[in-house]
Amino acid sequence: NLVFLTRFFIHANLPFLAADNPFFHSFLNAIQPSYVPPSRYVLSHNLLDSEAVRVQQEEIDRLKGRKNLTLLLDGWEDLLKRSLYGSVAVEVNQHPVVLSLEDMTGNRGNADNLVLVTQKAMTKMEIGDGKNIIAVTTDNPTVMQAYRRKLQALFPWILISSYFMYAVKPK
Predict the structure, then answer these.
(1) Is the dihedral of CA 112, 120, 96, 103 positive or negative?
(2) How far is 84 from 16, CA to CA, in rounded Å?
(3) Which end of the chain has fewer CB atoms surrounding its CB within 10 Å, N or C?
């Protein structure tokens, strides 16, 4: 089944280039001579895309029954100097759900843009009305303070807070 092969490549952190490796083909041929594996292109495009859609739908289904979500938003710069923002929905005693990872390189990381990114993620994950979100937590730079105020203006029932661990300085 191609789904299992795709998951194997993803979870083993194998490069999709390995799908075209002649030793991989020899191995598969030894197990089942009639099996024709997908190319790295098919694996990294068609199959990866369908797996991403499947996982997204699974996460949407997991969010449907949740009522007390906390939204977490954080930004960072990766090794390629891209400006990335990730949002996650969490609830006590439940697995967290990644709502989005947004590349905001070239866009201004201001509060208005962050609110738009959050709304886009919430809509994509079918929690756009925000009724099941009870709190939002971010770090505490000025842009995030403004972001929390703007988000609370849209969703007045949401409690806002900043990560308290940023204030704790190790000795």
Answers:
(1) negative
(2) 24
(3) C
